[in-house]
UniProtKB/TrEMBL annotation:
UniProt name for this protein: glutaryl-CoA dehydrogenase (ETF)
Record GO biological process: fatty acid beta-oxidation using acyl-CoA dehydrogenase; fatty-acyl-CoA biosynthetic process
Catalytic activity: glutaryl-CoA + oxidized [electron-transfer flavoprotein] + 2 H(+) = (2E)-butenoyl-CoA + reduced [electron-transfer flavoprotein] + CO2
Molecular-function GO term, any one: flavin adenine dinucleotide binding
Species this protein is from: Vulcaniibacterium tengchongense
Highest taxon above the source species: Bacteria
Keyword field: FAD, Flavoprotein, Oxidoreductase, Transit peptide
Amino acid sequence: MALHPYDLYDVRSQLSEEERAVQDAVARFTDERVLPIIGDAFDQGRFPKELVGEIAELGLLGATLPEDYGCAGLNAVSYGLICQELERGDSGLRSFVSVQSSLCMYPIHAYGSEEQRRRWLPDMAAGKVIGCFGLTEPHGGSDPANMKTFAKKDGGDWVINGGKMWITNGNLADIAVVWAQTDEGIQGFVVEKGMPGFAAQEIKHKMSLRASVTSALFFDNVRVPEANRLPNVKGLKGPLGCLTQARYGIAWGPIGAAIACLDEALNYSKERMLFGRPVAATQSAQIKLADMARRITLAQLLSLQLGRLKDAGKMQPQQVSLAKWNNCRMAIDIARECRDLLGGAGITTEHAAIRHALNLESVITYEGTETVHQLVIGRELTGINAF
Ligand code: TGC
Ligand code: FAD
């Protein structure tokens, strides 16, 4: 029996019925709703906001959070599959879901009061309230411990001053989960659109993640009530705990981008006739394609095991670093090689490879650069902190 070209080890057979159903539903959404419009959206530098309602209806926002808050209560492997299938469409849509789910709904659920959960989570699951996550600052995202944004207690309120940079969903968002230094260490605040002194400015001229909104945030004496402070965490472990959730999803997402590129290159090279035969009939093309399938297979197995560890409550942040590093590197290399296999045709967004390759320049940088994750593993092996 022929093997599935994008699942050579039949990883799908290791999924539960529910996990397969989730994958199928999101795959259908990507095929029918995302792929027909995403090339144009990327060209136009436009986030396809019209898809948010359907994404919410499919239960993809905060998908692993409990049903009590209007969420789907899915397991971690299902969340991974959601990320993979969305990113087969475009990293920008997966980013939207990662930020809403792992970086905004997760901290409200994990660090917020019951009142805060009830206030924001159901509307966020329904896509009626959109969130963004402000950690990175202009002077150095890799070192968030050195943040300058400060929240000063003033009576019953907090007054925030500072700025954040490269914030996904910034101009779309109704609320921002903002991390600020305080006299008692780093704390998280939910800053609402329209609060005086809070402004977002969209970052233009991006060559990557063009179908996603990226912004700078400004805080000029923004007065935030105590009711908007996340009470149950202090210190850098607050935002880093959110990053572990989002990076987990990002370990899965690029598999989808790589599969999209391999699919395109495979079809193209089978039809492209050069020197009297299809490009796919040459040994060098077959070696390239085989090597892509090898790397995708390894990433699939790595992610599934990571997901099983997460569902068993045993996943360690260092394991997430290894998977985020490996799978982003795998996908960006494959996207670039597929672009090459398409020749000149590969440089236009009529084909997906260059869009994915450009998107992956962001994906390999955000949520911890490749170097940051390599140093996390180096520290784990040697016991020496090289940061
Ligand atoms: P260290 O000072 O040792 O630790 C501080 C505290 O945090 C705990 N911790 C973690 N907790 C949960 N998950 C993790 N991954 C954690 N890593 C550390 C740690 O146990 C400690 O707790 P406690 O109780 O002792 O206080 O911090 P470190 O030396 O490990 O951190 C250094 C470094 C460089 C790894 C860290 O600063 C880092 O990860 N930098 C990269 C920053 C980053 O990734 N920013 C991402 C911004 S958000 C984003 O990019 C969104 S894009 C989304 C999209 O569009 O999809
Ligand atoms: P820097 O930290 O200045 O790094 C510059 C270079 O130095 C990199 O190559 C890095 O690997 C290297 N480097 C860093 N430390 C070391 C070291 N110790 N040794 C050797 N080399 C090192 N942030 C948010 O908070 N929220 C968001 O929603 C968000 N969305 C984003 C969306 C996009 C499209 C992009 C591009 C970024 C987004 N980010 C977001 C920011 C992202 O997390 C940061 O860009 C990333 O963490 C790197 O920070 P930096 O850009 O300041 O680079």
